[in-house]
Amino acid sequence: MNRTEVIKNGVTFGSVLAIVISFTINKSVFWAIVHGMFSWVYVIYYIVTR
Fold first, then answer.
1. How far apart are CA 17 and CA 33, in angstroms?
2. pLDDT at residue 17, rounded to an integer
3. How far apart are CA 37 and CA 31, in angstroms?
4. Measuring CA to CA, which residue among 7, 3, 6, 38 is closest to residue 22?
5. Distance between terminal CA atoms of the chain?
6. What string of H, E and C letters represents the secondary structure of the chain?
7. How many domains does the chain divide into?
8. Roughly what angle, to the nearest 10 degrees, separates helices 40-49 and 3-26?
9. Rounded distance, CA 41 to CA 11, Å?
10. What is residue 29's predicted lDDT score, i.e. its pLDDT?
């Protein structure tokens, strides 16, 4: 596995994780999409504020 694959998989996983967390909390597809775009930033924000 080269570096490009690791980065791509990390971005994809971060987006999916952010979408799942956001939808679980907000029950809103709109916010899930917005938070999915922010990816790891939203995941880290969620961890810090919870």
1. 11
2. 95
3. 10
4. 38
5. 34
6. CCHHHHHHHHHHHHHHHHHHHHHHHHCCHHHHHHHHHHCHHHHHHHHHHC
7. 1
8. 50
9. 11
10. 95
Distance between CA atoms of residues 19 and 14, nearest Å: 9
Q: What's the whole-number mean pLDDT along residues 21-50?
A: 95
Query: Tokens for 30?
Result: 């709109």
State residue 5's pLDDT score. 78
Identify the domain containing residue 33 by its residue range: 3-49
Q: Is residue 38 scored above 80 in pLDDT?
A: yes
Instruction: Look at residue 23 in the predicted model and tell me its pLDDT.
Output: 97
Q: What is the pLDDT of residues 2-31, one digit of tens each?
A: 777 777 777 789 999 999 999 999 999 999
Report residue 14 as tokens: 């971060």
